[in-house]
């Protein structure tokens, strides 16, 4: 019963497929370039307590 071991895969905010990044409940990512292997794009996100905030990014 160790909560620390419950890591979660981070899903792409665009296509929702699984990325290669996992976070724990106490993981904090700030302005993290999350790469999606499906979109082959990076999105800047912040993840705090497994909740994701996607930064607004002008789409070219
Ligand atoms: Zn994606």
Write the layout of secondary structure elements.
Layout: E1 8-11, E2 18-23, E3 28-36, E4 41-48, E5 51-54
Antiparallel strand pairs: 1-2, 3-4, 4-5
The structure holds zinc ion.
Task: Tell me which ligands are bound.
Answer: zinc ion
Main-sheet strand order equals 3-4-5
Largest sheet: 3 strands, antiparallel
State the separation between the terminal residues, measured CA to CA: 46 Å
Strand segment count: 5
Mean pLDDT: 90
Q: What is the overall shape?
A: globular
| Succession of helices and strands | EEEEE
Q: How many individual helices? A: 0
What's the structural domain tally? 1
Structural class: mainly beta
Description:
This protein is mainly beta and 60 residues long. The protein has one domain (3-54). It has strands at residues 8-11, 18-23, 28-36, 41-48, 51-54. The strands form two sheets. A three-stranded antiparallel β-sheet has the order 3-4-5, with no helix packed on it. Strands 1-2 form a two-stranded antiparallel sheet. The protein is globular and about 35 Å long. The structure holds zinc ion. Residues 12, 14-15, 17, 36, 38-39 line the site of zinc ion.
């Amino acid at each position: 019963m160790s909560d620390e071991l419950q890591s979660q895969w981070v899903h792409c905010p665009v296509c929702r497929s699984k990325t290669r990044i996992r976070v724990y409940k106490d993981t904090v990512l700030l302005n993290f370039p999350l790469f999606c292997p499906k979109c082959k794009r990076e999105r800047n996100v912040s993840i705090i307590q497994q909740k994701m905030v996607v930064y607004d990014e002008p789409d070219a």
